[in-house]
Design goal:
Length: 343
């Protein structure tokens, strides 16, 4: 008993939600210990890493020509292998208080549409960063476990995980994904929509960080009221001089219309493909939203109106995937059932 307590105390196992927008790290026995942007800043000539995470995000759009800002993950998968390896090394070392001799067991959440080649790239990057064993879990399964859905029971559970790069919609029963559909639309695409809309309507160029701020403060999927217009500053494309405009909730909703439409269509396709018995369970139990996109105001209202199915937003949808992966650190039998088999 004492040995179990001590081994838990000194355990170095980690669960990682390797997201397009943010990377979250869960340490066994300690909970979520790290939540930082998935951004790496390197020197262009030497490829030497200058900053990772929060410090790197603060440099977005502000670096000189000899320094580049990299988002290593794109659409939920690795776009830059070396930068991903550097980022994972940073998070693993940070989790272990700079003790680099520790080789942890690592569980990583990945999108449900990930290919064998992409799975191998994630595993290789984790091994190169010092991981001893690497397990991959599909994000909708991890999110469902993280929000407390009874995934091991013979009932239909439907989860919609809206991340930075992808939206994963899945129906889960008996520790397996019965049907899933992933689209490469998420928070990043919504930011792009806002940048394009403001450029088109106001001839104003804004950056990624400003677009994200607009989405969080003024964005909505359905009219919810009480959202104040906000002032946005950028560069006038005609005069080249910085200027400010005021943008309203209605305008942001119009900008996000296309991305939200794709997410709704994906939910409807998944519902249409659910077996009748599981569909009946979903009508009773509802659709659960997870990921940062679940926080978009009015999204639950819109989905309920469009599908007629109840929609539940859990307490902390942002951390659902990493909490689900973290729970698997203590449930190795279940982990073997739900982990992806990679060659």
């Amino acid at each position: 008993m004492l040995f179990n307590k001590l081994s838990g105390m000194f355990s170095n196992d980690l669960a990682i939600d390797l997201g397009t927008a943010n990377t979250l790290v869960y340490a066994k026995g300690r909970g979520i210990i790290c939540d930082e942007p998935s951004v790496v800043v390197v020197r262009r000539d030497t490829r030497k890493t200058i900053a990772v995470g929060i410090e790197a995000k603060g440099m977005l759009g502000k670096t000189p020509a000899n320094i580049i800002t990299i988002r290593p993950m794109k659409d939920g998968v690795i776009a830059d292998f070396d930068a991903t390896e550097e980022m994972l090394k940073y998070f693993i070392t940070k989790a272990h208080h700079r003790r680099s001799f520790i080789s942890p067991r690592v569980i990583i959440g990945v999108p449900s549409g990930i290919t064998q080649v992409e799975q191998r790239a994630v595993k290789d990057a984790a091994h190169a960063s010092g991981a001893r064993e690497v397990y991959l879990i599909e994000e909708p399964m991890a999110a469902a476990i993280g929000v407390g859905l009874p995934v091991d029971e013979p009932t239909g559970n439907m989860i919609v995980d809206i991340g930075g790069g992808t939206t994963d919609v899945a129906i889960i029963s008996l520790d397996s994904i019965v049907f899933s559909k992933a689209v490469r639309v998420g928070g990043d695409k919504m930011d792009d929509n806002i940048i394009s809309y403001i450029k088109r309507k106001y001839n104003l160029m804004i950056g990624e960080r400003t677009a994200e701020m607009i989405k969080i403060e003024c964005g909505s999927a359905a009219h919810v009221g009480n959202i104040e217009p906000i002032e946005v500053k950028g560069r006038d494309l005609i005069s080249g001089i910085p200027k400010g405009i005021v943008i309203t909730e209605e305008e942001v909703r119009e900008a996000l219309h296309e991305s939200i439409g794709i997410i709704l269509d994906t939910i409807k396709v998944t519902l249409e493909n659910s077996p009748p018995e599981l569909a009946a369970d979903i009508v009773d139990r509802g659709i659960v939203l997870a990921g940062g996109g679940a926080l978009l105001k009015g999204l639950d209202i819109l989905i309920r109106e469009q599908t007629g199915v109840p929609v539940i937003v859990p307490d902390d949808p942002l951390t659902a995937v990493v909490r689900g992966c973290g729970m698997m650190l203590d449930k190795l039998e279940m982990l073997r059932k739900v982990a992806l088999a990679t060659s």
